[in-house]
Amino acid sequence: MQKKIIALAVAGLVSGVAFAQTNVTVYGVIDQGYAYSSSDNGKSGVASGTNKFSGLKDGGLSGSRFGFKGEEALGNGLKAIFTMEYGKESDNDAATAGFYSRQAFVGLNNKMGTLTVGRQYNAASDIYGPNSSNGVVDAMPVNVFQGQNGSQLRSQGGNARQDNVIKYVSPDMSGFSARASYAFGEAGKTYSDPTIGVGDDGRFAISGSYANGPFGVDVAYAGTSKAHKVYLGQGGAGTTVANGDNINEWYIGGRYDFKVVKVYGSYQDLDNKTDVALANTGSKLWQVGLSAPVGANGLAMLEYAEIRFDADNSPAVLKNDGKNKGFGIGYTHNLSKRTTLYTFLSQMKYDANTGSAVDWVGGIGAAGEKTNTFSAGIRHMF
User: Fold this and answer.
1) Domains (ranges, CATH) in the chain?
2) Bridge partners (DSSP) listed for residue 83
3) Strand 51-58 vs strand 22-39: parallel, antiparallel, or unpaired?
4) Cβ–Cβ contacts within 10 Å for residue 252, how many?
5) C-alpha angle with apex 365: 362 to 368, nearest 5 degrees?
6) Local structure of 96: helix, strand or coil
7) DSSP secondary-structure letter at 6?
8) How far apart are CA 233 and CA 315, in angstroms?
9) pLDDT digits (tens, 9 = 90+) for 230-270
10) What is the DSSP letter of 173?
11) At a CB cut-off of 8 Å and minimum separation 6, what does 300 contact?
């Protein structure tokens, strides 16, 4: 109640408009912890030595953020809804760590479902987290690998949060639900990421779910139509060509709760024939995981993941067709409904034949190396 009163006061100060019939909530996350990461051969291009990171790191469990969300009853079961959410790293005030828009959308909801427009998660990414033992924590293998293939299911390092999206989410129908989204291009804008459409190019996603008791399964498709190509060694580095190939990504994942232990698994296939520096034309990523309750407030988890790249269409100098592997374990402990302690330990092995070795702390992993990462921290939600 106190949060709602404060939110209404803030909204009133900003706009001078009364929100008497609108339920507005202020919410957020502050997540801060320590991280240590080291590789056995230093950064890419360094012949010997060890590259390390030791220090504070934001977002070990969830990215820090704050936002406003609300709804207004319009009658006959129809509601207007909105969300405005911003991210902010909590360990520094550098220009690169300033506020950035995570979501900003408005829409309508009734018994027929929810329709929203604005910047938001695409329909495929909605089903990604529940099929991972750790909810896709950044330090764990499957989320690290998602950042390497530019997946449209992942937010950090990927394309899950998209601009100009219109999205529909169906109601639950005896355990079945569905989602669809379309992201329009931005006229006259050239995106730095060539996997994102330019002008009238668009991104489409659809997903379906079934959840009944201990069992759940999700399927999804995400695509980009006519993504602009970037050729390397064919017309010069950075040369772009309009009306390139489509990008197609398929995903299936599931979980089953045996009470004593819960099992997870997923598989996805990404086909991307846009030749980008240190990127790949395709990849296949799979993972399996387990989680088990520890007492009333603890949860232990483990995960194994592999990603195999297929770069047969890339220039010979970028013959990136290797396989990266990762294993991770973790533990979370709830001190209350809002405050959680966590720790994670993971190891990644990067194939020498792949140019993709992005890691959570940044700049540590490289092709042909093995990277170990430890993190521990605290997350508070308000």
Assistant:
1) 2-381 (2.40.160.10)
2) 69, 105
3) antiparallel
4) 16
5) 160
6) helix
7) H
8) 7
9) 443 333 344 444 445 677 899 999 999 999 999 999 999 98
10) B
11) 291, 292, 294, 329, 330, 331
